[in-house]
Design goal:
By secondary structure, the chain is an alpha/beta fold. The protein has 10 helices and 7 strands.
Length: 299
């Protein structure tokens, strides 16, 4: 009895495609977390070595950072961590907070009108995120190592020229400054404090908003995102201390959201005249061997 010839199935569209068309492998969640933690630790130790003028240790630590891929590899891990498969980008929260306020402002008897809010995104990894897609914002993006030079300016925020005078601030300043997972990257505790202090010098008061409303009461603002352990499991920092530090710089807390890994804040800048100049030193608030050493110092 003759055997029947088996009919060949067409199969999936991906059948027969060359290997180059397959999705490139990405870092696992565990590998991503390990790389980011290791980079932060080495960067912190490098900052301390440079401050102590210990060139031998600094050179050794820099070699370890370079061997692990340096800032580009850290950025790759950060982008992977912010992918939609890993929870998405943090700017969605800022859009979720401000968009409803903008809608309410439009519905007022005497509507609030304004041009798009000017947003400075510090540490921008990608030019496409929730803020870039929102009509609410006109975005300026900067990063230490830009992977998209045409859309993200390569610049250190601590070296960005400060607007000179009220008119320059109105022209060159911003309604919102975003520090999303940026402050925790700074290796020096005093450097973290100086970064927060510097933000207020870029926030403008005359943003074109007319009338009253929740949006006007929310900006100018700092959008701050930190890893949750920075305020939940640090020896030297908790949410109350963070609030005290920001209030001493002239900020008032408007919004807060805690996720499993991150904590998000929207701080309205009340102005330097509201600031209460105070020094905040490194001070143990909680004991325990399993705690981290995240701390912000203001001098």
């Amino acid at each position: 009895m003759p055997t029947k010839k088996r009919k060949k199935s067409v199969g999936l569209l991906s059948y027969g495609r060359p290997p180059t068309s397959r999705k490139a492998p990405t870092l696992s969640s565990q590998a991503t977390r390990t790389l980011i933690r290791t980079h932060h630790t080495l960067q912190k130790r490098l900052t301390a070595a440079l401050a102590a003028k210990d060139t031998a240790v600094a050179a050794s630590l820099q070699a370890q950072i370079d061997a692990a891929g340096g800032l580009p590899k850290y950025q790759e891990a950060s982008i992977t961590g912010q992918s939609s498969e890993r929870g998405g980008d943090s700017s969605r929260v800022l859009v979720e907070w401000l968009s409803p306020l903008f809608s309410k402002a439009k519905a007022l008897p005497r509507p609030v009108s304004s041009p798009p809010l000017r947003l400075l995104e510090v540490g921008a990894l990608r030019p496409w995120n929730a803020c870039s897609r929102s009509p609410l914002f006109s975005v300026t993006r900067i990063d230490l190592h830009s992977q998209h030079p045409s859309e993200i300016e390569e610049q250190d925020f601590m070296e960005r020229p400060i607007p000179d005078g009220p008119e320059a601030l109105d022209r060159e300043g911003f309604d919102v400054v975003s520090l999303s997972l940026v402050v925790n990257y700074v290796g020096d505790a005093a450097g973290k404090g100086e970064m927060l202090r510097r933000v207020g010098k870029f926030l403008r008061r005359g943003n074109g908003l007319q009338g009253e409303g929740a949006l006007r009461d929310a900006i100018p603002a700092l959008f701050l995102v930190l890893p949750a352990p920075c305020v939940l499991n640090s020896r030297y920092m908790d949410e109350e201390r963070l609030k005290e530090i920001l209030e001493s710089l002239g900020y008032a807390l408007k919004e807060r959201k805690m996720s499993r890994k991150l904590v998000y804040y929207l701080w309205r800048f009340e102005g330097s005249d509201k600031a209460r100049r105070k020094a905040w030193k490194k001070e143990e608030l909680k004991t325990g061997g399993a705690r981290n050493n995240f701390v912000i110092v203001l001098r």
